[in-house]
What we know:
By secondary structure, this protein is of the alpha+beta class.
Amino acid sequence: MTRADGWHRLAPVSPIVRAGRAAIAIAILLLPTALRGGDLKKDWPQLAVVAVLLVLGFVSWLVTRWRIDGDDLRIETGLLRRQSLRFPLAQVQAVDVVRPGLARLFRVAELRLRMAGSTGGTARLAYLPERDVEPLRTRLLALAHEGADGVAPTEEVEERVLASVPTGRLAASILLSDVGFLAIAILAGLLVTAVEAPAATTEAFGGSAVWVIAGLTMLWRRFNQEYKLTVAEAPDGLRLRSGLVALTSETIRPGRVQAVRMVEPFVWRRLGWCRLEVDIAGRQRRKGEGEAQRAPLRAVLPVGSRALAEELLERIVPDAPTDRLRPPRRALVKSPLRYRFLSFGRTDTCVVTTTGRIRRVTAWVPLAKVQSFRRVQGPVQRRLRLASIHLDTAGRSVHANLRDRDVDEVDGVLESLVALARAARRSA
């Protein structure tokens, strides 16, 4: 719905989709009563909750409008306390299109713009007609890339698929993850209890039910979020699509990745698997909540071969270091288990660090994204003449740490990294 002054409204079914989860949960509770032919009037509190949710959703839809104003996205909302929010498109880190199950039923989708900065929040348009979402996303990305020039292209650009995750490998990787091992251990314990002590099965199940449900929920969420994840390269950025019930389509603009992390658990390394994640600046803010919440790292490759991960890494961090230096031998006293995996490398534009024994983690940080450097030296390190350098970025989820380096080496490396980071920011 568009007015003559350029303001748009959200889809009319938005109140129904927003109240959908609560309404479905209440409907499931009332279903047995309806099937038995019972009197639903006794359940009027639940019905009243649904009615209140729908009314509040309708009021929110009625007082919410949006438009593109120059190079800003403006969203006005609020009945008693009116808010006018401006989101500069030049600070957009990523653009997501989210289609929950109920939204897919009504053929609508949510558009999210992740902004830079720890308090930048997220611009949310929930919900828009499906036919309008992709053209609007293309237009916003064009304005963010080129600036507002009055005429932004709205046609879909071509893309090239780089990787796709097979469903079988994804399921196996989740079962072989920390969450999978926990869920399997709990289920195995219940089965052993049922065979060895049937009388105690009920009591044991009652105490473990919460953990079982929590474990299964975490397994399902990861599977649902990363199901058939496809990574594609397009002129407007890196495109990620995934989801089984709730579909997610995300576009990460070029140069917006703060850091990249490769995770290789012990069991995965035996199978030649790894996980590649990217860290983007900004916080996720859910509407209706008072505080911003940290968004999890986005998995560019939930599970795949190291060769495929390195191929994707070349497109995200083109100048990734290949040579790495080990710490001095005396660092074995402080870090005996992970000493073999401690290393770091650098180029003129990027730093890479590796750590971890059971769960090996490799982090790449572009020097242009570094916010600060920290030289840290603990009491044990002082005795061993060792020190560490921490690289902080706006993403704050991936940390590159040059652990347990020689003191004389640290001073020279720190001075060099500061100069390289300054030059990288100027060139960027």
